[in-house]
Amino acid sequence: MMNYIEKTINTALTQRFPDQIEFKAADVKSIAMENGLSDSEAYKYATSFPKIRRGVYNLESVVIPLRQTKKEVSLPSSVQSVVNSEVYVPSRDQYYVPWGHSKDVEMIVKSMSFYPTFVTGLSGNGKTTMIEQACSKSGRQYVRVQITPETDEDDLLGGFRLIDGETVFAKGPVIKAMEAGALLLIDEIDRGSNKIMCLQGVLEGKPIMIKKTGEVIRPEDGFNVIATANTKGQGSDDGRFIAATIIDEAFLERFTITLEQPYPTLSVEKKIILKHMDKFDCKDEDFADRLTQWSDTIRKTFADGGVDDIISTRRLCHITQTFSIFGDRAKSIDLCISRFDTDTKEAFKDLYAMIDETVNSCVFSEEESMEKMLNSAIEQTGN
Q1: In the prediction, which pLDDT does 20 show?
Q2: Which residues pair with 24 in a beta bridge?
Q3: Spatial contact of 127 and 188, defined as CB atoms under 8 Å apart
Q4: Could you give the CA distance from residue 185 to residue 187 in angstroms, rounded to a whole number?
Q5: How do the residues of the chain divide into helix, strand and coil, expressed in percent and rounded to 5?
């Protein structure tokens, strides 16, 4: 009787060479090594079958039974294997403004190469949208999986589900992406536990076995993996991302490159805000100017350690949408920064008021920089 590994190897042979019963030892050895055997073990297995001629062996006794067995036979009786339709080309966002590593991501997506990429950056700076829009522009199918501390192998590769009274094996997002040759977007990978280690083989572009069904899944041409994170996989020392975990170094090493996505420049961010104003029909270029100056000042102060919070590009888009509803600048800002602690919120509001007053009076000098305004607002709040 075949053991687990032998069955895996033989299944792989039947899938890769569906009409053969005679195999070159080199082919058998190669597939055996792909499925975990050492060089010597793989050679021993490849040459253990009846020899036909030099270097060629007859595997009829093991491949014919497998060809006569449908995939579902490896499942318990009354169990089916199903795939849900989560593979699709993202919609094009006509209001999207590219920046940072957008061009690099587009090139990676268009290449159709297997090129695992790690994208890191602070929250709300467009990492996920950048990848989605690259797929949309390229007409590439993708599958997005959101990682949480509870994400496990079943969530990623698939698990048994009870549907309409029948037990079915529902393939997970990783398997769907591999079979479709799609791009797998692993969002917030640094939120996961060590259970994401089941993806290690996936990040090497190798076939994987679904343990619960015995199916061996090989990535189709075009399959690739891009992961996003707020950290570089080494945890969050400053406590901003308390759910961020330390990712195993060997796991991280399987990503070919790491892209650090920045916040946009002042000019690009203004363009983003104006596009959002077009989207929500609330065009106000003067307000867009002040918002970009305000957020830029806060980010610079954050980088210098002066404040613990930051205004992200996503937060500015929230303010823009809120402005389209209430038509009040101050109220829109107030509502969208209420999640911060009271002192931070008041300091940010005071800074905006100072910028507003400075712009209105057209009084501004190097001596009274915007960073100094924020520091002044922080001091006033503290008092």
Answers
A1: 81
A2: 56
A3: no
A4: 6
A5: 50, 15, 35
Helix or strand run (H / E) with residue 144? strand 142-146
pLDDT at residue 75 in the model: 44
CA distance 290 to 292: 5
pLDDT of amino acid 10: 77
Count of other CB atoms within 10 angstroms of residue 365? 7
At a CB cut-off of 8 Å and minimum separation 6, what does 288 contact?
Answer: 270, 273, 274, 277
How many CB atoms within 10 Å of residue 381?
Answer: 16
Dihedral of alpha carbons 322, 327, 329, 331, sign: negative
User: 3-state DSSP call for residue 101?
Assistant: coil
Is there a contact between 15 and 218 (Cβ–Cβ < 8 Å)? yes
Closest among 12, 209, 201 to 114, alpha carbons compared:
201
What is the Cα–Cα distance from 255 to 74, expressed in whole angstroms?
A: 33
CA dist., res. 250 & res. 156, Å (int): 19
pLDDT, mean of each 10-residue run, the chain (383 residues) = 63 76 85 77 84 84 59 42 70 96 98 97 95 96 94 92 83 94 96 93 93 89 96 77 85 97 97 97 97 96 90 97 97 96 95 84 52 59 54
- 82 within 8 A of 170, measured Cβ to Cβ: yes
Q: What are phi and psi of 183, to 5 degrees?
A: -90, 130
Give the Cα separation of 134 and 207 in Å (integer). 26
Q: Which residue shows structure tokens 């309409």? A: 164
Q: What's the CA gap between 319 and 329, in Å, rounded? A: 8
Sheet with strand 158-163: strands edge to edge: 79-82, 166-171, 158-163
Q: Quick one: tokens of 370? A: 């915007």
